[in-house]
Design brief:
The chain is of the alpha/beta class. The chain has helices spanning about 15-35, 45-55, 60-75, 80-95, 105-115, 130-135, 160-170, 185-195, and strands at about 5, 120-125, 150, 180-185, 200, 215-220.
């Protein structure tokens, strides 16, 4: 029996463009100034992590900023970038410049599932801070009370590795057979299945990821009934 639902954000609960244009654009415009202004504080681990990951130990702040912008443009899931984005965008959410955007079917479904006693969690490549802000500062009102916890690359691991899903299952103290994962990415669904989870693929019109067998795919949360979703793992 499904008792927990873990949801992806980009392409699943929210339009990809709202993440890549709003959050990425906000980060890109402020990245250089933020690194310079916080080089001995919050930006210090970002600078060190970027130099290490890029193999550029002597890179100055401007070069680090250029590396991070390149990763941003290529959608590289790098921890230093996600950390910087989370801290930079936190200012945007609190100033009202940024809001979490959701497909129309998402909020009613999450509200109903929560009311029915299902525990809801988020697993995204964006930092936990960005995830919390995305839900807390959602356009139309705070959705944070619906979510039990958040997981990212640092707290769980890469989204295409089954070990990451095992880590989440242990953290939420739920057997794999009791967890349903919703994502638009076939490789993530494959990894969750390998960890013993049930999965449903979400493909919405206009979104870039394409459905792939053997998973079940829907185009709206209205078509998902978690209590009846056990056994949806690919065989």
């Amino acid at each position: 029996m499904i008792t927990a639902v873990v949801i992806d954000i980009e392409g699943t609960t929210s339009p990809t463009d709202s993440v890549r244009e709003d959050l990425y654009g906000y980060t890109r415009a402020r990245l250089g100034d933020w690194l310079r202004e916080n080089r001995t504080g919050a930006a210090a681990p970002v600078l060190a992590g970027t130099r290490d990951a890029a193999g550029r130990p002597d890179a100055d702040v401007d070069e680090v900023a250029e590396i991070l912008r390149g990763w941003l443009g290529s959608d590289v899931k790098a921890e230093p970038l996600k950390t910087a984005q989370g801290l930079i965008c936190a200012e945007g959410f609190r100033s009202g410049a940024l809001h979490g955007e959701f497909f129309a079917d998402v909020v009613p479904a999450l509200t109903a599932w929560h009311a029915a006693g299902l525990r809801l969690y988020v697993y995204s490549s964006g930092s936990v801070r960005n995830q919390r802000d995305w839900f807390a500062f959602a356009r139309g009102g705070d959705l944070g009370s619906l979510i039990g916890d958040y997981f990212d690359l640092t707290t769980a691991g890469p989204k295409r590795e089954s070990a990451s899903y095992e880590t989440i299952a242990a953290a939420v103290d739920t057997p794999a057979s009791g967890i349903l994962f919703l994502s638009d990415h076939p490789d993530e669904l494959d990894a969750a299945v390998a960890a013993g989870w049930s999965v449903v693929g979400v493909h919405r019109p206009g979104e870039p990821q394409r459905p792939r067998p053997p998973h079940r795919w829907v185009d709206s949360f209205e078509q998902i009934h978690p209590r009846a979703s056990a056994g949806l793992r690919a065989r």
